[in-house]
Amino acid sequence: MVTKNQLLSKEVFAIYGLGNVGGSIAAVWLRAGAKVIGVDISKTLLQQIKEGNSHKKEPFLSETFSKSIKKKTFSLTSNGIDASKKSSIKIIVVPVGLKNKKVDLNSVIQVTKNISKGLKKGDTIILSPSVPPGTTEKIVLPILEKQSKLKGEKDFNVIYNPERIFEGRAVKDIEENYPAIISGLGPKSLKMAEKLFTLISKKGVLIMPTLAEAEAEKLFEGAYRDVNIALANELADYCEKIGINFWETRKGANSQPFCHLHYPGTGVGGLCIPVYPRIIIEDASKIGKVMNLLQYSRKINDNMPKKCVDDSINMLMKNKIKPINAKIAVLGLGFRGEVTDTRLSPTYDVVDEFLKKGCIISVHDPYIFEDKTLPKSVSLTKNLSEATKNADLIFISSDHKTYSKLNSKSFPKGRKSILFFDGRNILNSKSFPKGLLHTIGIGKT
Ligand SMILES: NC(=O)c1ccc[n+]([C@@H]2O[C@H](COP(=O)([O-])OP(=O)(O)OC[C@H]3O[C@@H](n4cnc5c(N)ncnc54)[C@H](O)[C@@H]3O)[C@@H](O)[C@H]2O)c1
Question: Pick from 67, 72, 101, 132: most CB atoms within 10 A?
Answer without folding.
Answer: 132
